[in-house]
Amino acid sequence: MDYKEIFGRRLKSARLMKKLTMDELSRRTNGEVGKPNISKYEAGKMMPSSKVHIALAKALGMDFDYFFRPVTVQITRPADYRKKSKLSKGDENAINEEVKDKAERYLEIEDTLGISMKFDYDLSDIVVSNRNDVKRVVARIRKDWNLGLGPLSNIIDILEAHGVRVIEIEAPDEFDGMCIFVGEKKPVLVLNKHYTIERKRFNALHEFGHSVMRMSDSLSQKEKESLCHYFAGELLLSSEVLCEVFGMRVKKVFLNEVGRLQTQFGISIDAIFHRLKDEHILNDALYTQFCIKQNMDSRLKRWAKTSTYLGEETSYRLSRMVYRALAENLISEEKANEILGTNEISYIDNK
Is 71 left (phi over 0), alpha (psi -120 to 50) or beta? Predict the structure, then answer.
């Protein structure tokens, strides 16, 4: 790939990330770069002058060197990937380009440190067609990863410890997340950084379920989504724990007890009630009563929607790699700031 093609790809990627048309980008340069030339640059037919290059970089808020960074990441999606229908085309393009950009930076720092993280966990011997199959998958993961039945403190940290890279992006509320593959089947989990901790934890496991479970071909897309929901709920708060806390079947649910489970296990109030219904601990009438009461009582609704989980949900792997590379003088402070999205890195120098 020559410089013209690299520049063109980077220019188009940056423009899509900013959700700009060529006309809008041209206006951002105060007319210094016309739409016809932008089109030629993106097509790899022409290279800009230094003056034009600077104008484009400034208009897009990108570093000058960004436009010459080799394109190294090819992204593929699972066979059952479902397009996020609520997203506009512009939002979808922006998300795709940001994901590629962040994935490239992530893999670049791995290469710099000579780290190779593989994901070779295979559950293909279990063909998932119902909730009992999902329980078998979850039981296998809990055993193989030594998770036990207690609360999972940091889902992102657990996934990254087992070969799944996790990145968070700025995205509209309509974007829940997705799991894609980079290069040689390297799974990358993408999350919306604006979500509450409970929703982020649930979505991370839902998307992980899509990538790790071998779904039966007879299932519809809606059924697959439902089973991935069940997978996330069962991993966060197992049916065994629910039966131990509430018994096999209840006629009354104390909200304070549900609140303690939310605080301890990092799963939303709504999801806990759904779990109780799924496991037939709570009958349909009581579940419906909760939903009606929540909609009518604004205080209950606020309480149920408020995140009260006491833990955290953060990826530390990328920052640890960046600081290690910086300490070993493998990258500059500017590069570290660029990867981490920070403005200043503080450190103590032992001279």
Answer: beta
